[in-house]
Design brief:
single chain, 453 residues, alpha/beta, Rossmann fold, UDP-N-acetylmuramoyl-L-alanine:D-glutamate ligase, Protein-Tyrosine Phosphatase, Chain A, 3 domains, 9-stranded mixed beta sheet, 6-stranded mixed beta sheet, 33% helix
């Protein structure tokens, strides 16, 4: 069945005839296509030149738009009532501040998409684990409530759901802090906040600003909505939705928690228990992810046997503690998605035996010192990228540390250092953008080099 076209027309009528889209990444391309399909006159601007944007421009094909590439023009920002920005653009950019003073509305792709979505949204955020949780929850819900859309920051922009025109029973979306900065009316029926730890301090002035951005996921919820949080998250006041908690440390009268080797869910008078080893996902961080999925699934009335079956069949995602190979008794793991210190710390906690850690990339200005507490587990630290010097300064006194100019050389050194029973863990603690286009490209490079050893 097609979506309600009259409602779409009403929502479209509230969008100005002329729209500026800033940034031509995946969400930008999707926004241009969608807005053009509504008959809007779209101008696109990006700091990158046309050659660097070739894949995006090719993806736009015959979509009508006016493009300005290789830099921004102030007049574009002052001449549009609506500006849709990329998550990568700072919301306090001087051009945006000036546009707002002139009366412009500045939003992101998530806010634009949500204007056209009536179906219940389940939104997941957190510093770590949100992609795995979104994927696993989608895996369960797709078996119980077909059709279900799974997307957002996970890779398929939310606006693509609107463009497809085929309504799902539920929309499950990973939402980043950058995307939450630009929401106005975005209101999930269920919001899940997995954790908040130090990250993106290259963008936020202080950790409190980053945490506040994450908390915006609850901003527009009402008492009839649901807010799911870890007991480790300090939330303060202001959440209007009914709150449910999950914990890897404490038993709860209501919510989801761990006790021994069992995971428990308590809701009202109902009690459900699952074996921890039911899921192939390892580590405390994945236990946290799993608890949130179990709790959400029971809140939506999914049968226990179906939950058990789907959790057991979910094999995890690439670049997240991904086993690559074993050679001469040394195991190689690709954790390229670990772009902050807490993610790497959690990866180390989940592993057995000694580790040779390969890390480094573009510095995000957080402290690397938390890893020092795990120094006894790290046989050696091999560093690459722009952040190598800073990481060595903080961790060098605790762990034997070596620098290499390339990932290839780092893997070779790590393999020479390793002995049977050790693991080589590629968990960078940094973003990829100094040496690689994305964490995916970086992880694929690690796998290719490791496979060639």
């Amino acid at each position: 069945m097609k979506r309600d076209t009259e409602r779409l027309k009403l929502a479209a009528s509230r969008i100005p005839d002329r729209v500026l889209v800033v940034g031509l990444g995946a969400s930008g391309v999707s926004c241009v296509r969608f807005l053009a399909s509504l008959g809007k006159r779209v101008t696109v601007t990006d700091m990158k030149g046309e050659s660097a944007l070739a894949p995006s421009l090719e993806a736009l094909g015959a979509t009508p738009y006016k493009g300005r590439f290789g830099g921004h023009d102030r007049r574009d920002f002052l001449d549009h009532e609506l500006i849709v920005i990329s998550p990568g653009m700072n919301t306090d950019h001087p051009l945006l501040d000036e546009a707002r003073k002139g009366g412009a509305r500045v939003i992101g792709e998530v806010e634009l998409a949500s204007t056209f979505i009536d179906e219940p949204i389940i939104a997941i955020t957190g510093t770590n684990g949100k992609t795995t949780t979104t994927s696993l929850l989608g895996h369960v819900f797709q078996a119980a409530f077909d059709p279900v859309f799974v997307g957002g920051n996970i890779g398929d922009p939310l606006i693509n759901y609107v463009t497809a025109g085929l309504p799902a029973r539920y929309v499950i979306a990973e939402i980043s802090s950058f995307q939450l900065e630009t929401i106005e009316t975005f209101r999930p029926r269920t919001s899940i906040l997995l954790n908040i730890t130090e990250d993106h301090l290259d963008r936020y002035a202080a950790f409190a600003d980053y945490a506040a951005a994450k908390m915006r996921i609850f901003r527009n919820q009402a008492p009839e909505d649901q807010a799911l949080l870890s007991t480790d998250v300090s939330i303060g006041n202001g959440i209007k939705a009914r709150q449910y908690y999950f914990s890897t440390k404490d038993g709860l009268e209501e919510g989801a928690f761990v006790k021994g080797e069992m995971l428990h869910v308590r809701l009202g008078g109902a009690r459900f228990s699952y074996r921890r080893d039911l899921s192939p996902l390892v580590g405390v961080h994945n236990t946290e992810n799993l608890l949130s999925v179990l709790l959400t699934s029971h809140l939506y009335g999914i049968d226990r046997s179906l939950i058990e079956e789907r959790v057991a069949s979910f094999k995890g995602l690439a670049h997240r503690m991904e086993f690559v190979r074993e050679i001469k008794g040394v195991r190689f793991y690709n954790d390229s998605k670990a772009t902050n210190v807490d993610a790497t710390k959690r990866a180390i906690e989940s592993m057995k035996g000694d580790i040779i850690l390969i890390a480094g990339g573009r510095d995000k200005r957080g402290s690397y010192k938390p890893v020092a507490a795990m120094a006894e587990r790290i046989k050696g630290l091999v560093l690459i990228g722009e952040a190598a010097g800073r990481i060595e300064a903080e961790l060098g006194p605790y762990v034997p540390t070596f620098g290499e100019a390339s990932l290839d050389a780092a893997i070779s050194r790590a393999f020479r250092m390793a002995r049977r029973g050790d693991s080589v863990l590629f968990s960078p603690m940094c973003s990829s953008f100094d040496m690689f286009e994305s964490y995916k490209v970086r992880g694929d490079a690690f796998k290719k080099i490791a496979e060639a050893l």
